Amino acid sequence: MSAQGVEVAPWGPPYLLYLGSAPDDLSIKTARGLAYWRPQWCLGQHRRDDCAVTLGLPDVGLAQSRDNGADTMVIGVANAGGVMSPEMVADTIAALEAGLNVVSGLHHRLNDQAEIVAAARANGRALFDARAPQPGLPVGTGKPRAGRRLLTVGTDCSVGKMYTALALERSLRQRGCPADFRATGQTGILVAGAGIPIDAVVADFISGAAEAISPARGDHGWDLIEGQGSLFHPSFAGVSLGLLHGSQPDALVLCHEPTRRHMRGLADYPIPDLMACMEANLAAARLTNPAVKPVGIALNTSNLPADEAQAACERIGALFGLPCQDPVSMGVEAITDHLIASFGN
Question: For residue 6, what pLDDT is reported?
Fold first, then answer.
């Protein structure tokens, strides 16, 4: 217990970020999110020989990282289904034996793996599953609550919803406006230090979890709620819909990756039309907040040259009559300006 009587987690930074055998940048979004938003926590990366990507951090062995001061290994990969391969299980056990705690955001939980639990106990180390929702979540009520909320939504998975919400939080705080990022995914939870893993919540409780994560507030500030999935993704639309209903968003920002041609992991399903996607999200959100407004478009233009990225933002912004920016390369100040102009400071 801390001096304030608040329980302190038995794991924490400095972190060693585990990339394993990651095949591409999308597969290390958990590690990349931590390295970008909390660089002061990240001591190095641990990669297998066949790993195809890097964070640009020092490559560190498990025992060496512990000697260098690392406290916890974060499994920084996110794969389809959130499974732990035999190699990942073996590396996790090796990390525990090297004296590291282990944190994971995968669906296959550390605490469900008998070998991993035994290794943690034998070495006096802690395990934390970021995708294990807290018990006792309520069923959503749809009852209006005080406060202002913005939800990031997307044309697909992994298009920048978390990054955009965090960038908006930072932008609003720099202007003196109370703002809090509300994490709904494993990476966001590790960055924020709190949250609810929405995609691990039983379906009946998704909207209630969204209500719980963004309770009433009376300080004229904003909750920036991290969106998940897409209403147009056959695998994950249910999570997206529950978030739209439970968040009761006053504002939506649509996130999109303009070079993507089909839904992630589903080659037979094309990326939806942007206008149709925005309208579908607004229609769903109006069930619990009829006054919801779109306030901006966030593009992930990392696969475009700078001139094409700027042209895409100008074209899409003109189409919607809204500010359109890449939060990474352009910031979100125009979106923040429009948000404040639409709702007041």
Answer: 34
Tens of pLDDT along 43-98? 999 999 999 999 999 999 999 999 999 999 999 997 766 778 899 999 999 999 99
The residue ranges of the chain whose pLDDT is under 50 are 1-7
* Greatest Cα-to-Cα distance within the chain, rounded to the nearest angstrom: 60
User: Parallel, antiparallel, or unpaired: how do β-strands 266-270 and 222-225 relate?
Assistant: unpaired
- 20 strand-pairing partners: 47
DSSP state for residue 124 in the 8-state scheme: T
Domains of the chain: 15-129 (3.40.50.720), 148-343 (3.40.50.300)
Work out the burial of residue 132: count CB atoms within 10 Å of its CB; fewer than 13 is exposed, 13-18 middle, 19 or more buried.
Answer: middle
Within 101-144, residue ranges assigned H as helices are: 114-123
DSSP states along 244-288: HHHH--SEEEEEE-TT--EETTEEEEEPPPHHHHHHHHHHHHTTT
Q: Return the pLDDT at 4.
A: 36
Token couple for 89? 């299980």
State which H helix or E strand residue 338 sits in. helix 333-343
* 36/326 Cα distance (integer angstroms): 16
- Strand-pairing partners, residue 59, are 45
Nearest to 78 by CA among 90, 93, 88, 70: 88
Determine if the pTM surpasses 0.90: no
d(CA 17, CA 32): 9
Q: Which residues pair with 75 in a beta bridge?
A: 18, 104
